[in-house]
TrEMBL record:
<keyword id="KW-0133">Cell shape</keyword>
<dbReference type="GO" id="GO:0005576">
    <property type="term" value="C:extracellular region"/>
</dbReference>
<comment type="pathway">
    <text>Cell wall biogenesis; peptidoglycan biosynthesis.</text>
</comment>
<keyword id="KW-0961">Cell wall biogenesis/degradation</keyword>
<keyword id="KW-0573">Peptidoglycan synthesis</keyword>
<dbReference type="GO" id="GO:0018104">
    <property type="term" value="P:peptidoglycan-protein cross-linking"/>
</dbReference>
<protein>
    <recommendedName>
        <fullName>L,D-TPase catalytic domain-containing protein</fullName>
    </recommendedName>
</protein>
<keyword id="KW-0378">Hydrolase</keyword>
<dbReference type="InterPro" id="IPR006311">
    <property type="entry name" value="TAT_signal"/>
</dbReference>
<dbReference type="Pfam" id="PF03734">
    <property type="entry name" value="YkuD"/>
</dbReference>
<dbReference type="GO" id="GO:0008360">
    <property type="term" value="P:regulation of cell shape"/>
</dbReference>
<dbReference type="InterPro" id="IPR038063">
    <property type="entry name" value="Transpep_catalytic_dom"/>
</dbReference>
<dbReference type="GO" id="GO:0071555">
    <property type="term" value="P:cell wall organization"/>
</dbReference>
<dbReference type="InterPro" id="IPR005490">
    <property type="entry name" value="LD_TPept_cat_dom"/>
</dbReference>
<dbReference type="GO" id="GO:0016757">
    <property type="term" value="F:glycosyltransferase activity"/>
</dbReference>
<feature type="domain" description="L,D-TPase catalytic">
    <location>
        <begin position="94"/>
        <end position="230"/>
    </location>
</feature>
<comment type="similarity">
    <text>Belongs to the YkuD family.</text>
</comment>
Length: 232
């Protein structure tokens, strides 16, 4: 199945998201509505995970090159917390399946189960579907805006030679670079530090997981892993 590109030109990293100021929230936030407080009344979330458990799952990661702060879990709909779920698939264990219609990423496990992560996905006009594979992996990757983005947002020109890795870098702590037929598609699965973005369509076709979830997936994903992006 052929991936439909999102009008991007070759370059490291990904095209940014909705136009705006050149900072992480501008790239990843767009006009997404805040999800804060949904289903978080009382001592437990609506799906049974306690707030203490969620806070522990998404706690700080101080051992990173750039220490990652804790996620404010009150800003994430509990249905997007990381879970092991029943999932029927003909794909081999280890395969990554992106479900943009429901804002989930699945890693297929043994025994008819999968690890499920909440995600942000492409906004209207930038969604794509098809098969790809992880061509390479990056920790705290350099991000370089494609030429088309620089035309739309001239302020991005200062990063034409690359924005160094860091908490403000749009690619975040970990990146899975998606390839097809030996060529980089410019699409990635990347780490997001914006909890409000999870469950929203805000990117130019890339898929973002919370940083803690992305590290979890990254460690379990070797190069050449198959990635299936379903139709939205």
């Amino acid at each position: 199945m052929i991936i439909r590109t999102a009008n991007a030109e070759a370059g490291e990293g990904r095209d940014g998201v909705a136009p705006g100021l050149l900072h992480r929230r501008s790239f990843l936030f767009g006009s997404a509505a805040c999800l804060g407080g949904l289903g978080l009344a009382g001592c437990a979330t609506s799906d049974g995970m306690s707030l203490a458990e969620a806070s522990a799952l998404y706690g700080p990661v101080p051992t990173e090159k750039f220490p990652i702060p804790a996620v404010d879990v009150s800003k994430v709909n509990p249905k997007y917390y990381r879970r092991t779920v029943q999932y029927t698939s003909t794909e081999a264990p280890g395969t990554i399946i992106v479900d943009p219609a429901n804002y989930y990423v699945y890693r297929i496990e043994e025994g008819g189960r999968a690890t499920r992560y909440g995600a942000n996905v492409g906004r209207d006009g930038f969604r794509w579907s098809g098969n790809a594979y992880v061509g390479r992996k990056s920790e705290w990757a350099t991000w370089t805006p494609p030429k088309e983005m620089i035309k739309r947002q001239p302020e991005a020109a200062k990063y034409a030679r690359g924005m160094p890795g860091g908490l403000d870098n749009p690619l975040g702590a970990r990146t899975l670079h998606l390839y097809q037929n030996g060529a980089y598609t410019l699409y990635t699965i990347y780490a997001s530090s914006d909890p409000e973005s999870i469950g929203s369509g805000i990117t130019s076709g890339c898929v973002g997981l919370l940083s803690q979830d992305m590290i979890h997936l990254y460690e379990r994903t070797p190069v050449k892993t198959k990635v299936v992006v379903l139709s939205a």
